[in-house]
Design brief:
Blueprint (H helix, E strand, L loop, with lengths): L1 E8 L5 H7 L6 H12 L3 E5 L2 E8 L2 H18 L12 E4 L1 H11 L11 H16 L4 H20 L9 H13 L6 E5 L3 H13 L3 E6 L2 H11 L2 E4 L3 H4 L5 E4 L10 H9 L6 E5 L16 E4 L5 H10 L1 H51 L8 H24 L5 H10 L9
Parallel strand pairs: 5-6, 5-8, 6-7, 8-9, 9-10
Antiparallel strand pairs: 1-3, 1-4, 2-3
Helix pairs in contact: 2-5, 4-6, 4-13, 5-6, 6-13, 7-8, 13-14, 13-15
């Protein structure tokens, strides 16, 4: 089997297209079941700047074709045609998938370089795939290794310092255009992980007043209790826009929650006072036509690239150090993977030789019925020790990182039959 990956990212595709193939947490289980029926399984990783399907296949070309077709199905449900994706879907095969996943999980391919949230998203994608039964053991091992590597990278490089998130770099962009936030009112729409991080960042920079609105009144209250914010019932969110100087939208909704009519009504009630809106949702939480309203400034993921580039430049040394760690981690994982591939051969070889030992021992003992007490146990122990010494070198060889084909050659020499999926 070879690792395969098909994906689309904000680096290459328009946001309008990316949001149509994004998969929200609440629909992930259903999409994984559909993927299993269409392509035999895989892991769906959907973040604010990418949607990727990761798996393994004995026929990579066929597997990648099925993954691309499935992304086309997602696009068609969002109002596009499958052909709209043709220029934007990328394919990765073999060891390059391992390297790519390790970098993504460590936050090196995020808009906010070193972003810690992405590791959580990778973990949830892995968990969902495991619960739905859509993931091969060899793919699960790669995801677990990527998560372990991300923790090492954050601990041992500068990427773990001054933690960044998409919302934090978005707020930096907002501050450049609005100035000091100490006398401003900010409305946060969404109280999930991103909303909570946004509110914490606002508290840290000293914003004057924080309003939090969410479909989950309980989550909104928890965020407000922690950060001295004011909860706003979700049905009152449109009216609350008129009080805000800045709106940050970060929900997990499938459709925009801040509509053109909401903002137009709010602007009519605020007598030409400017409004800045930051939309970090994927799919977008704010209707794009809001940007056409007078005195409204709308920033979305596309506009964060300039801030992202600045942070990337300031973290060049840490990124180089992280890449070096990743290279070593990938090499270690590939060595382990070779060992995993050899384990079925080792188990089958051990069982075959032990069965032969028992047969020959029984035959020998049958010819010596008058052995003194304890001698049969002594011969059994001696035969086990002898077989262990004979198999030591072949097993060491198989576990030394040999290729799967080399392990299969050993199996052929001993005429072994085993299940390669073990």
């Amino acid at each position: 089997m070879e690792y395969i990956l098909a994906g689309i990212s904000i680096d290459q595709a328009p946001v309008e297209l990316l949001e149509k193939v994004s998969v929200q947490p609440h629909e992930l289980r259903l999409r994984l079941e559909e993927l299993a029926r269409h392509a035999g399984g895989g892991v769906i990783l959907s973040t604010c700047n990418r949607t990727e399907i990761v798996g393994a296949s004995t026929n990579p070309e066929t597997g990648l074709g099925q993954y691309s077709e499935f992304m086309g199905i997602l696009a068609e449900r969002g109002g596009h045609t499958a052909g709209d994706l043709d220029s934007y879907v990328y394919h990765v095969v073999g060891d390059d998938v391992i390297h790519h996943l390790f970098r993504v999980t460590a936050g090196l391919d995020s808009l906010a370089i070193g972003e810690a949230q992405v590791a959580g998203q990778v973990s949830r994608a892995l968990q969902a795939a495991g619960e739905s039964g859509s993931i091969e053991p060899v793919v699960s091992r790669m995801f677990h290794a990527a998560l372990r590597n991300s923790r090492v990278v954050r601990k041992e490089t500068g990427l773990g310092r001054d933690s960044l998130s998409i919302s934090s770099i978005g707020l930096q962009l907002v501050q450049r255009h609005t100035g000091d936030l100490s006398d401003k009112t900010v409305l946060v729409v969404g109280a999930g992980e991103t909303g909570r991080l946004t509110a914490r960042t606002l508290k840290h920079v000293g914003v004057g007043r924080i309003l939090v609105s969410s479909r989950s009144a309980e989550r909104a209250k928890l965020v407000c209790d922690e950060l001295d914010g004011e909860p706003v019932p979700f049905e009152e969110m449109p009216a609350a826009i008129s009080q805000a100087d800045v709106v940050v939208a970060c929900t997990a909704a499938s459709e925009p929650v801040v509509a053109l009519d909401h903002v137009r009504s709010a602007m009519n009630a605020r007598q030409d006072r400017r409004l800045t809106i930051l939309d970090v949702g994927m799919p977008r939480d704010v209707e794009g036509t809001v940007a056409d309203l007078p005195n409204v400034e709308l920033y979305a993921l596309e506009q964060l690239q300039s801030i992202s580039d600045e942070h990337r430049n300031s973290r060049v040394d840490a990124a180089i150090e992280a890449d070096a760690l990743i290279e070593r981690s990938v090499d270690r994982f590939k060595e382990q993977l070779s060992g995993f591939a050899a384990e079925p051969v080792i188990r089958t070889l051990g069982s075959r030789i032990d069965a032969m030992r028992e047969t020959e021992l029984a035959r020998a003992l049958a010819k010596m019925p008058d052995l003194p007490d304890g001698y049969s146990e002594l011969m059994d122990a001696m035969s086990r020790a002898l077989i262990k010494r004979i198999l030591a070198d072949p097993i060491t060889y198989l576990r030394s990182g040999v290729s799967k084909s080399a392990a299969l050659d050993v199996a052929q020499v001993f005429d072994l039959e085993f299940d390669e999926a073990d």
